[in-house]
Amino acid sequence: MVPTNFYLILSALLFTIGVAGVLTRRNALIIFMCVELMLNSVNLTLVALSRHWGNFNGHIFVFMIMAVAAAEVAIGLAILIAQYHLSKTTNIDEINLMKW
After folding, report:
1. Could you write out the three-class secondary structure of the chain?
2. What is the rounded radius of gyration, in angstroms, for the C-alpha atoms of the chain?
3. Complete domains list, the chain, with CATH
4. Is the separation of the CB atoms in 73 and 36 below 8 Å?
5. Distance CA 68, CA 53 (A)
6. Tell me: the pLDDT tens digits for 66-77?
7. φ and ψ of 76, to 5 deg
8. CA–CA separation, 98 and 5 (whole Å)
9. How far apart are CA 21 and CA 24, in angstroms?
10. Which tens digit of pLDDT belongs to each residue from 49-66?
11. pTM
12. 31 and 18 Cβ atoms separated by less than 8 Å
């Protein structure tokens, strides 16, 4: 059996990669993927700690986070596609949402 510390270290590394991607990248699609990576690292932490403590509360929160992530992707990609048709770019610095 793998110790819980390994899962927590992996989760921290994934979250750090996600934060670095959000802060350094300018492409909206990459930023969405980095946010999803951060949400998945939180899911990994919740499942690992839930297994460690022997209850299922973490699993319930994981399902709620997955639902929020799915809604975020659907709405975010719809906004991004609409904005791409207007300005022909996915660069965050060049997107102007007040132009509509």
Report:
1. CCCHHHHHHHHHHHHHHHHHHHHHCCEHHHHHHHHHHHHHHHHHHHHHHHHHHCCCHHHHHHHHHHHHHHHHHHHHHHHHHHHHHHHCCCECCCCCHHHC
2. 17
3. 4-99 (1.10.287.3510)
4. yes
5. 25
6. 999 999 889 988
7. -65, -45
8. 46
9. 5
10. 999 999 989 999 999 999
11. 0.84
12. no
Q: Which amino acid is at 18?
A: G
CA–CA separation, 67 vs 78, rounded Å?
17
The identity of residue 93, as a single letter, is D
CA dihedral 54, 38, 68, 58 (to 10 degrees): 10
Tokens 């904005």 — which residue?
83
Residue 91: strand pairing partners: 27
